[in-house]
Amino acid sequence: MESPMSQENPSYLHIRDSQQMVWIVKGNSLIAVPSSNNVKPVILSLIACRDIEFHKEGEGTPHYLGIKDKNLCLYCTEIQGYPTLQLKPKGEKCFLFYRNYEGSTVVFQSVSYPGWFIATSSEAGQPVTLTKERGTAKSTNYYLEDGR
């Protein structure tokens, strides 16, 4: 996850949506499930990218998003003509997401696919995906809490 143009120390954060869905790793996918005592959610590892090439006014700060203790990063790739969220073990542009604040929540927009946002379904057990449709059945706004 490290890049010469990124901060040295990551922020470790728990993530949940407004329906109390948290993320877990299942195989090579991120899955959104209801938060409970029986669930061990992932802790995100966020590293801000300082490379000015990726900074755009009004888009938020670009970040690498990783999964703590898993050596995995979230990235976007195109599958069957649509941007798709995947997990991979290294970082580059396709791994960057703009982190933008909206009130007390944050949204993560793909740097490689502008207008596509990380999203969770209101239905438990569904993969964490990307969507262009904000404000629909998918949640694109998240609460972050200290994960240390």
Features:
mainly beta, 0% helix, disordered N terminus, three-stranded antiparallel β-sheet, eight-stranded antiparallel β-sheet, 148 residues, Trefoil (Acidic Fibroblast Growth Factor, subunit A)
Topology:
Layout: E1 11-17, E2 21-26, E3 29-34, E4 43-48, E5 61-67, E6 72-79, E7 82-88, E8 96-102, E9 105-110, E10 117-119, E11 126-127, E12 129-131, E13 142-146
Antiparallel strand pairs: 1-4, 1-13, 2-3, 3-11, 4-5, 5-6, 5-8, 6-7, 8-9, 10-12
Give a written overview of the molecule.
It is found in: Secreted. Belongs to the IL-1 family. GO terms for molecular function: cytokine activity. Keywords: Secreted. This is Interleukin-1 receptor antagonist protein. The protein is an all-beta fold and 148 residues long. It has a single domain, classed as Trefoil (Acidic Fibroblast Growth Factor, subunit A), CATH 2.80.10. The chain has strands at 11-17, 21-26, 29-34, 43-48, 61-67, 72-79, 82-88, 96-102, 105-110, 117-119, 126-127, 129-131, 142-146. A hairpin with a 2-residue loop joins β8 and β9.
Would you summarize the structure shown here?
This protein is mainly β. It contains no helices and 13 strands. It has one domain: Trefoil (Acidic Fibroblast Growth Factor, subunit A) (Trefoil).
Low-confidence stretches: 1-7
Mean pLDDT figure: 86
What coarse outline follows from CA principal-axis ratios?
A: globular
Structural class: mainly beta
CATH structural architecture: Trefoil
CATH class: Mainly Beta
